[in-house]
Amino acid sequence: MDIEILAVGGYNEVGRNMTAVRCGKEIVVFDMGLRLDQVMIHEDADIENMHSLDLIEMKAIPDDTIMNTVEGTVKAIVCSHGHLDHIGAIPKLAHRYNAPIISTPYTTELIRQQIAGEQKFGVNNKLFALKAGQRYTISPTLTLEFVKTQHSIIDTVMCVLHTPRGAVIYANDFKLDRTPVLGDPPDFARLRQIGKEGVLALIVESVNVDDRGRCPSEKIARDLVRDTITSYEDDKNALFVSTFSSHIARVKTIAECAHEIGRKPVLLGRSMERYSSAAEQMKLVAFPETLSMFGNRRTVDRTLRRIMKSGKEKFLPIVTGHQGETGAILTRIVMGDTPYKMEKGDKILFSAKVIPNPMNYGQRYLVEARAKMSGVRIFDELHVSGHSYREDHYELLHILNPQHVVPSHGDIGMTGGYARFGEEIGYTLGNDMHILRNGKSVLIK
Q1: Which residue, 97, 190, 411, 418, could crosslink 407 as a Cys pair with Cβ 3.0–4.6 Å?
Q2: Nearest alpha-carbon partner for 70 in 15, 157, 5, 149
Q3: Is 83 assigned a ligand-binding role in the annotation?
Q4: Domains (range + CATH), the chain
């Protein structure tokens, strides 16, 4: 059986991830994501009214026209987790394929919401929720298995495609967190077993491969956040925390710390409400009873007015805007576009890193500069990454011992960095280590 790996998107950049694996005449597509910065959008973005062709031209979603050149039929669309750079293009592209969309239960719910909000295209693909540890029979020759891993969003898995020639594993994104704040640690026992059974190819993220050592556990971020928030137990000034709205474990930590110091945690922002309410309804997280959430802009402004009136020392707002995004709650507050007035001694805690591109750096600088003009105190980088570092990658390769490796999810600096790392441990570029660019493919011999 011929096995070919096609790089559709996410091999020239971080984002718009999409990979196709052809096994004979059957094709399995992994992920269909957005590249958020290309349309100057982040978690509060609305692209529901945009056409796929415009988004492809803007390099915001994968250019899947390469699929027209491949002989075979798409049998399944498989999503590894619920971040927009992995599922955000589904409403624009999935309807072109007569195939079910398979993902974990939480990811499936997020995909369902994405499809419901789509204005241009009708997406009627069947959604199938598969839990970590379960299998799905795609065809008589192909079986899909989800293996539990950790990342900066709950319900993330490594996708294992069992073929007659061995397993093809899609590991975008993952961290080997043995002490997670939410959910179980990665299923190392199953990964070791799959490694012994035989791994033909590993398609693996390369975002942080040049960061030495191991990626710190989410437990470390919890301690950083708690150490800072609980230092201001008797402070009468405002405390704002901004983090990724999809990072449910972090939101839970912040809410619990607020509760600990006698402040009411308040989630503000449409995406904050969307991700957290879905997780809470699915009983994947338990927040303190004092937590409330508001997504609608008018309701958010009303809540901010109430906080000003009741006393800012009674609340801890958890908000969007850590990248300085236009229209995000924190940006609007700092720029004076809400009823809330920032004052000297107020504090903004950033429990997130700036996503590295010039636009984000510029926007974030502007927000911080404006906040400092009002005498606001800034606390930065109360955060750990959701992406594996070099020694985590070493451990995964050691466990799986794949015959071939395809670095993905990164620009040429990142995938090239993975190739350099791979050569250190015995892989050879062009032989069993393959650097792909968008639109290119490799036949696994």
Answers
A1: 418
A2: 5
A3: yes
A4: 3-214+386-444 (3.60.15.10), 218-379 (3.40.50.10710)
